[in-house]
Amino acid sequence: MPPEALRLFVALELTEEVQGELAALVKRVKEAGGRGLRTVSAHQVHLTVKFLGDTPRRQVPALSKALEGATAGVSPFRLALGETGVFPPRGRARVLWVGLGGDLEALAHLHRRVEEALEPLGFPRERRPYTPHLTVARVRPGASPGQLARALEALREAPPRPLPLPVRTVSLMQSILGPQGARYRRLASAPLGPAGVTGDGPGPQAGP
Description:
Layout: E1 5-12, H1 16-33, E2 37-39, E3 47-56, H2 60-71, E4 77-87, E5 95-102, H3 104-118, E6 134-139, H4 145-157, E7 164-167, E8 169-178, E9 181-191
Antiparallel strand pairs: 1-3, 1-8, 2-6, 4-5, 4-7, 5-6, 8-9
Helix pairs in contact: 1-4, 2-3
C-alpha cells in the first residue's frame, strides 16, 4: 500500500450493550470450536456499509463531504440483532455471523445513498446484493469437521438477544493493520438528518 494511502471503509458503529451481547456469543462459539476458529473481538465488530480499500489520504475531505450529502435528510432509524448464519450458506462454512432485524428498508435506503454519493469519487457501486451482517468468527483452513460442527451448534443453539441498535450516524473508518490484528480509527462521522459531518473523531481505538 502506498505510504499516503489509507485502508478505509464506511460503517455503522455498535453500542456497548450490543458489543457485550456479541462478546457472550463469541465466547461460546470459541469454546465450542477451539483452535478451528479465528474469532473476532466484539469491540472490533462493526456493520460495514461500503468497503473502500486503499484510498489516497487526500480524498478523505471529499469522502467526508460525500457522506454528509448521503445522510442529509435521512431520518435516524433502529436495527436489532437478528438470527445467526454462515457464509457460504451451502457447503463448508467459512464465516459465522449474526444477522440484523429492525428497519432493514431504511438500512437499504441508506446503503443506496452511500453508494450513489461515493460513485463520483471513483468508488464503483457494489454489484452483489447488500447482505448486512456482523462477522463473529472465521473458520481456519485446518479446522476438523468436529470442531466446525460444534461451533455451528453453539452458534445456532444460543442466538443473541434481539437488542436494539439505534442508527444515528455513519462513520468513515480507517483500518490499521498491526501484529496484534487490526485497529480502527474514526476519521469522520456523518449524522443522519439535516446536519453535516461532525469532523475528525478520536485517535486509534479498539472499537468498531
